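Q: Hi! First time doing this. I have a protein sequence and I read that you can turn it into a structure. Is that right? Here it is:
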Amino acid sequence: MSKKAFYVRHHAKPGKREEVKLIWEKYARAYVEEMKGQIYYVYGFDDTDPDVIIAYQLSDGEATSADFVKQPWFADYQRETAALLAAPSELRSITPQWIKGDTV
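A: Yes, that's right. Below is the predicted 3D structure, encoded as structure tokens:
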């Protein structure tokens, strides 16, 4: 099974990054913690832009970002974060070619 990675960049309105994080914690955190097939997931704040959030994940190929958006809470998550974002989120699906300490 090949691994898959996914990258998301959210650009919050000035001063709204923490509010976006709270909404992510409200809806997505528990799901991410229990998601089968996910090797790792990182949700973090960009060190060079005080309004940017970066999230990325590595999965075994079966756990996908498509599963995330199919969750019953996802529409509420999008609705609540939409007013806090300065621009549409950047989404990237990645096929790893090399992973430290692992075979792809």
